[in-house]
Design a protein that fits this description.
By secondary structure, the protein is α/β, with parallel strands linked by helices. The protein contains nine helices and 13 strands. It comes from Denitrobaculum tricleocarpae.
C-alpha cells in the first residue's frame, strides 16, 4: 500500500449554503447547514486515504471539543492521527464557509490559532519509509522540516502552494519541494504574472522541481523537470460544491506520484478526483472512492 505523509492545517468547517454570497451588510438566511473536517493538508490526507493510501497526518490542534471532532473525522477516513499534537489551553482551527447556488464559496477563518510552531517533535525519521510527503503553507516551520527530510532521503514531495498570511515563507519551500502545485491566486501573488503559463515559467526559475497550477474550469498546467509544458483540461461536470476540491486534487496527486504514475497520468487522476468532488456537497465528504474514480476515468 502506498504510504503518504501529509503535514499542515486541520480545522473544523461550519458550512452554510445560500442562494447568493453576501455582498454587504445585513441578515442572510441559509438554505442548509452542516459541519465537516477541513484544512488543506487534512483534507488531502483524507482524500488519499479514501483513494487507497496508507495515510498519516502530522498537524496541531487545541485540547478542545473542536480538536476532538477534527481527530474523530480524520480517523473515520482511516487517517493515522498519532502525530497530530494537541495543545492545552489553545483553540483548534475553525472556519465558516458560505457556498452559493453555483457552488462558489467564501471562507472566514481567524487564521493562526496560536499553536506552537516548533517542529522539533516531528518523527522525521519516518519520512524515508514514505512513498510521498505533502505539506501545505499553514505551518511553515513544519513544512520546512518535512521537505528537508524528504530531500535528504530522496522521498517525493508535494507543496500545496495556496495563498498564505506568511508570504515570506513560501520561496524557500518552493525551492525545497520536488513538486509544487499552486492555486491560481497564489501563483499570481508569488510571481506577479496574470497569465498562468507565464507565472509557471517565473516559478520554475526559482526551483529545480516540477511546478503546476490548478486553474478551476481551465484545468491544470505544469512544467516538468526538463522544462516541458503540459495541460490537463478540466472534466465537464455539474458543479455543486467546490469546497475542498483543490485539497482533494493535492491528495490524489500525491497518491498518484507515490504509485509512480507518470506525471501526465497523475495530473489526469487528480483532476478527475477533484471534478467528482465538485459534483457532491460537504467539502471532503464528497471525495470519490477509488472504484468511482477509476470508472469515471474509463468513461471520460
Amino acid at each position: 500500500m502506498t504510504k503518504v505523509i501529509c503535514l499542515g492545517l486541520a480545522v473544523w468547517d461550519q458550512i452554510f449554503t445560500l442562494e447568493h454570497l453576501p455582498s454587504g451588510g445585513g441578515k442572510n438566511f441559509a438554505k442548509s447547514f452542516t459541519e465537516v473536517g477541513g484544512g488543506p493538508a487534512a483534507t488531502a490526507a483524507a482524500a488519499a486515504a479514501r483513494l487507497g493510501a496508507e495515510t498519516a497526518l502530522w498537524s496541531r490542534v487545541g485540547e478542545d471539543d473542536v480538536g476532538r471532532r477534527i481527530l474523530a473525522d480524520l480517523q473515520s477516513y482511516g487517517v493515522d492521527t498519532a502525530n497530530v499534537r494537541r495543545f492545552p489551553n489553545r483553540n483548534s482551527g475553525l472556519a465558516v464557509v458560505l457556498i452559493d447556488a453555483a457552488g462558489e464559496r467564501m471562507i472566514v477563518t481567524p487564521g493562526d490559532p496560536g499553536l506552537d510552531g516548533d517542529p522539533a517533535w516531528l518523527p522525521l525519521e519516518q519520512v524515508a519509509a514514505a512513498d510521498v510527503v505533502l505539506a501545505d503553507l499553514r505551518w511553515p516551520q513544519g513544512a520546512k522540516s518535512l521537505l528537508a527530510a524528504a530531500r535528504q532521503s530522496g522521498t517525493t514531495s508535494v507543496l500545496d502552494a495556496d495563498l498564505t498570511s506568511e508570504p515570506e515563507a513560501i520561496a524557500p519551500l518552493v525551492e525545497a519541494a520536488s513538486h509544487v502545485v499552486f492555486s491560481a491566486p497564489a501563483l499570481r501573488a508569488f510571481t506577479g504574472q496574470e497569465d498562468a503559463r507565464a507565472g509557471l515559467a517565473a516559478a520554475r526559475s526559482k526551483t529545480q522541481g516540477i511546478v503546476a497550477v490548478t486553474a478551476g474550469a481551465e484545468g491544470c498546467f505544469w512544467i516538468d523537470g526538463e522544462g516541458n509544458s503540459g495541460h490537463q483540461p478540466a472534466f465537464p461536470v455539474t458543479v455543486v460544491d467546490t469546497l475542498g476540491a483543490g485539497d482533494v486534487f493535492h491528495g490524489a496527486f500525491a497518491l498518484a506520484l507515490g504509485e509512480r504514475q507518470p506525471l501526465a497520468e497523475a495530473m489526469r487522476f487528480a483532476t478527475a478526483a477533484a471534478a467528482l468532488k465538485c459534483t457532491r456537497p460537504g467539502g471532503r465528504a464528497g471525495t470519490p472512492s477509488r472504484a468511482e474514480l477509476e470508472k469515471f476515468l474509463q468513461e471520460n
